[in-house]
Amino acid sequence: MRKTFTKIVITGLFFLPLRAHAQTETITGFTTITSGTQKQLESRFDQQLDAQNIGAAIKTFSAKPHHISSAGSKEYATLIENKLKSYGFDTRIETYTVLFPTPITRVLEMTGPTTFKALLKEPLLKEDATSGQQGQLPVYNAWSADGDVKGDLVFVNYGLPQDYEELEKLGIDVKGKIVIAKYGRSWRGIKPKVAQEHGAIGCIIYSDPKEDGYFQGDVYPKGAFKNEYGAQRGSVMDMVIYPGDPLTPGVGATQSATRIASHNEAPNLLKIPVLPISYHDAEPLLKALEGPVAPPDWRGALPFTYHIGPGKTKVHLKVAFDWKMVPCYDVIGMIKGSKLPDEWVIRGNHHDAWVNGAGDPVSGLAAMLEEAKSIGAMVKGGWKPTRTLVYCAWDGEEPGLLGSTEWAEDHGAELQQKCVVYINSDGNERGFLEAGGSHALTKMMDEVAKGITDPQTKVSVYDRHKAREVVSAAGTKAKKDVLAETTMELDALGSGSDFSTFLQHLGIPALNLGYGGEGPGGEYHSIYDSYDLYKRFKDPTFAYGVALAQTAGHVALRMSESELLPFDFTDLYKTLQNYTTELQTLTETMRDNTAIENKLLSQSKYVLASDPSKTFIAPKAKDEVPYIDFSPLQNALVTLQKSTDSLVGVIKKANAAGGNHDALNKQLYQAEQQLLLKNGLPRRNWYRHAIYAPGFYTGYGVKTMPGIREAIEQRDWKEAQEQIGLSAEAITKLAAYLSIIMR
Amino acid sequence: MRKTFTKIVITGLFFLPLRAHAQTETITGFTTITSGTQKQLESRFDQQLDAQNIGAAIKTFSAKPHHISSAGSKEYATLIENKLKSYGFDTRIETYTVLFPTPITRVLEMTGPTTFKALLKEPLLKEDATSGQQGQLPVYNAWSADGDVKGDLVFVNYGLPQDYEELEKLGIDVKGKIVIAKYGRSWRGIKPKVAQEHGAIGCIIYSDPKEDGYFQGDVYPKGAFKNEYGAQRGSVMDMVIYPGDPLTPGVGATQSATRIASHNEAPNLLKIPVLPISYHDAEPLLKALEGPVAPPDWRGALPFTYHIGPGKTKVHLKVAFDWKMVPCYDVIGMIKGSKLPDEWVIRGNHHDAWVNGAGDPVSGLAAMLEEAKSIGAMVKGGWKPTRTLVYCAWDGEEPGLLGSTEWAEDHGAELQQKCVVYINSDGNERGFLEAGGSHALTKMMDEVAKGITDPQTKVSVYDRHKAREVVSAAGTKAKKDVLAETTMELDALGSGSDFSTFLQHLGIPALNLGYGGEGPGGEYHSIYDSYDLYKRFKDPTFAYGVALAQTAGHVALRMSESELLPFDFTDLYKTLQNYTTELQTLTETMRDNTAIENKLLSQSKYVLASDPSKTFIAPKAKDEVPYIDFSPLQNALVTLQKSTDSLVGVIKKANAAGGNHDALNKQLYQAEQQLLLKNGLPRRNWYRHAIYAPGFYTGYGVKTMPGIREAIEQRDWKEAQEQIGLSAEAITKLAAYLSIIMR
């Protein structure tokens, strides 16, 4: 499901602490001797990885449509289980019963000034063997409401809150109207949600060729980019409230689970109909719009003048869905730990796709299965993992992380006891390592990244990652800062893949790993996410499938074999320090901007600068930004720093002493749970992590210290102050917890 | 001819000195008593101005094509003379003999992979009465070389030096090829010049709908923007070397003038053929290109993927011109000064157009004629100007400032003796006052702007100008800075209209005035620059014609009537101080960037960050930026400050003393001549002003302190040091000159 992942999360973290190059003889978590053994283990692991095998798996698992509830999904779940079994894993399929709507009716037509009926169909292409297969889900947005609406059409750009502020200035209201928004800039689900908040009765989401079509590159089948008929399926469940089965928030969707009576009562489902369309279908609608010309940054790449509307353009949107309960097949494979069977290192990737999903998710799934094969081979060779390794293939990720969420909710208590780390992956392609997750794992990840060779350039994937980072850094100062860094930073995690419940609901340390950036295209969630396209444009030699298998595999093996788990809370502390500075800067910037904007408004500068022949309604002045007390947060960080500083010593001692560290290890991997907020986040208490959450108005995009940050962004100063208190409490709790370790 | 004037020149000047609001009882240059008389004079002047009359004049003077050498041009010159005569001016037409090429052959065709023949024609429209008239010049670039070339086509973005740096990284060379460049980002003449420097054999310039078509707004006739067939005529003479008749640099093109033997020897003419085309004609050529996909900011708004080429696309470009000598009719009207007949206040606007030119130049011309009418009426009423008023309508501005340049060169010595100021205007439309010129006139201009009411908002044109400035300022800091300002700043003048020779060759104080910003469109230099379009989209009530007449008229009357000419060299000093700071910052920034870029190159970061499946050639490291000695400039400024400080006192004293200030006045208006460089600018000694010149690689765009700035930009550190010395010399000369006044 993940997409434009890096683009978004990178905004989460500004600068990183400087540290000496971590590439030493010993690996964090191991002694000098065991470091050597571990390195041998990892190279034995690497030798088993086979790019051609990964390619074959991608072909196999994308041969048919396999969305949740399809025949393909069940067939592939069974096939995955059999593979894992054959590798020597104890396997089972855990089945949950979840709600999953599929379309019965999809109609979009223009009834005036001219008439036009949208195709809503991606054609079969002779260059793409699986295009046009039977049983492929048609183009739709899962969790749209049923609806049959007629009305004026208004173009709302990306459909974000700031776009509606622009509309207000132009005197345009969407109440009772149907809006058309572009894909991009936010997770798709935000667009209908904000439209609904503004009184729209329906929402069309289209792919503009500017972001997702010929403007970007040659279109399919000549190139990989979206052709005029391509459209993007996807969930519009409001999963920033909670993901998973909408009827069973917080609990596993077992047969016997108590459920919300009807999808109409689910608090994370929309009340208005939504439909995604291609630019072929969008063109006549947009072209017919009247009203003001759209602001420059609203205009796309279609060959006419973009107007906002409304005008004579009348649109009829009708969608109806089959809201059925379906089975959700999670495949679980285990290899019991020889010494610590009750400490689980969990690795996961989803197996369901919107259609054939060669890239999303099969490219990641194939790499994970290759890891499992290699581990299995070592086990057959007599090796045994110290901790238990759990390999999972999730169903129903696309509609809203259904499989992973229900499983993690179902096994929540046990996971909080046993799970050392959850390692996630999803779609994968040629390019650069993208790693996000719990910041106490920064050092471990840094060491792993420096040990993996980039298939194309033969430098480490760390070096390539850094090269891209410094080249894309804006300005001399930023470039200097990046050059000064000597470690791989971790992006903060928002949402968009199966790590969410583990990290943000249960407080389990998590990582999300993948390669990308050199396989751009427009196949995402379309029938063209096929083996043929993947092979031509994404990772022709499947070498990056191997790179992912190595990266995730090395992480899994270090987490399963280390004597002392490689958590470093100093890195977490430094990250929190940076976030706190960010929040203070954010507040000051908002204060400055508000003051100057209000001054300009009071002097009617905007009116005088605007063209009197056009409608311009000056916005209302905003309330001034008060000074907020950040001291509780700052004091909590001082306490945390003390704890983390002394913890360094404790770990050194323990390392030197050797022997059994089981108690200490358990305390280390459970530490992150201390950061869970007692009552969760405001208005969405399913999300309990004080540091990481998807943004209420960005979706996949992370908000770090979300309680505080979003209160500030929403100008709710009272809540901001409360949230500072609550986050400070959580951080102090962690500090106290870590200092207990030292006794 | 001017276009995107503001956009470019605004970059010239960053922040402005703060000063108290200048709106006082007395007007600078007048006593408390005479200020009152002057105000009455100006309101009498205003009462005579009639919008309908201006509208009628725009209709009259755009009824026929009237480019230089056309029947229309001669007819209109005579009509202008008769009007001025009827207003009471002593008039004459001064005729020069200049070279002016018109097209005989224009062929552009694609010979492969498919065939296509460019239309090169703007169609007649029923909504536009003068479209498709007989005798309209076809679409072409004047001063293109004759040529018949065949070759591969390469897309070079805007055709600027940095675009060729990008091509080098992609391993693409234009030697022996034909380039196609977009209009925009620079004066058009820069594009073929840079193409020629890189070995191209031909240059096509097209209007992309992104900058100049449907992306901007509805196209003509529905809206004012360029339709698919519209194309932009214009000169590609390299007038940054020298403007005017290419055969007579530095001297008036009289019958008897010694001329360069042939246009082939003129140093400011191209050696390669150039042709401007519409996006209708460009589309098949661009669409057929192969090779790498163009970088994101190279892509326009045509509905396909932009490639750079080369590929199979073969192009044939053939142009031939009739290089004939033609008469150039400058209309000169004078009203002799009653007290100071040998002090001339000169007002000018060109009368020639590329086609019908309702906007460019007739909208400015009509305003100027309305001023002349009003002044004439006052003279008939018994009033007499103190100084001589000279109203001029120039011919041949479009091909390269021919009329104004030849006249100013012809009368250079006399003008340097007599001319107090040259006040220019050109195209005019609804919107905001744009004023540029000699910075010693800042205070005078500020006072005038504060006294003129904006027709739409009824605040002063100063207030509206400032409102736009603060709203468009980027960032809180910039907005605060603008809010703190209390005066109208003057933009520095580059080129693009008839002020150039007066200011940059002769050192005569000059101003360029106009309104704009609320009449955007694509008619520029096309057959659609018509009365019909102007009336609908540019200034429907002609109220801004009146505003321009008021603005330029008040300036003319203050310059002609003031007892003490309102020059304030403190403003000039402060401006030079800012330019010097800019140059130092520019050097430091370049030093920083060079250091970091070279570091990234030495660590092959760019190679590692680039996609190995695509060609990428890392650029060579640039020479480090040495430390340059700015002290000569800084010391010169200290001297200048001393002079200007004491001059303030001298002027106060003189004011108090009253009586005859003739000697002082003459010294004041001749002061700017002290800033002329003995040997002019490097490689273009026609340009002699140490402070203002059009950019060697921007064209119309100004370069302030050009000798120094361009040496730095071109990384010629030795020349930069020399130019600092020479500019310092000129500034010291001015300082000494001003201190002499005080004796």
From TrEMBL, chains A, B:
Query: Transferrin receptor-like dimerisation domain spans which residues?
Result: 628-738
* PA domain span: 149-217
Extent of the signal sequence: 1-22
A GO term for molecular function = hydrolase activity
- Which portions of this protein are annotated as coiled-coil regions? none
Q: Where is the Peptidase M28 domain?
A: 331-532
InterPro entries annotated for this entry?
PA_dom_sf (IPR046450), PA_domain (IPR003137), Peptidase_M28 (IPR007484), Peptidase_M28B (IPR039373), TFR-like_dimer_dom (IPR007365), TFR-like_dimer_dom_sf (IPR036757)
* Keyword DNA damage tagged: no
Q: Does the keyword Hydrolase apply?
A: yes
Keywords (alphabetical) are: Hydrolase, Signal
Pfam families per UniProt: PA, Peptidase_M28, TFR_dimer
Q: Which family does it belong to?
A: Belongs to the peptidase M28 family. M28B subfamily.
This chain's protein is named: Folate hydrolase
Organism annotation: Segetibacter aerophilus
